[in-house]
Amino acid sequence: MSNNTIIQEFEQYKGQFVITDSWDVQRLIAVASDEYDYYWVYWNGAATSWCSCVGSFIPLKGKIDEGDYNNLIRLAKLNHHDQFYLEREAKNSTQEAMYDVLSKRIREKSTKIKGDDEYITEICWKIN
What we know:
Elements: H1 3-13, E1 17-19, E2 25-33, E3 38-43, E4 48-52, E5 58-59, H2 66-79, H3 81-84, H4 93-110, E6 118-119
Antiparallel strand pairs: 1-2, 1-5, 2-3, 2-6, 3-4
């Protein structure tokens, strides 16, 4: 699979819940690379995982009942660390700023990479 094909597939499914090659339901949030391979980057609500683009995933949106898919979104908004502070209504500007800072820290900590690894797409935190 070429770099362009991988990015096109990512753009089609970014932010959606998918079944990974290891049979987990996770959100597809990015594409990354190292010196050897390209990787699908998944988010399980607390941490990322990288799986080679040699493998694939099964998108769930449009393949399962819409109500069931919406339930996945509802649960993610309640439980996923990147969503936790975003879905709370701020009572004032100080609280809103605090939620923004905490959310940013969670995302930065969760997507740190080492060495020559790099994200070749923007990370999609929006749930689609």
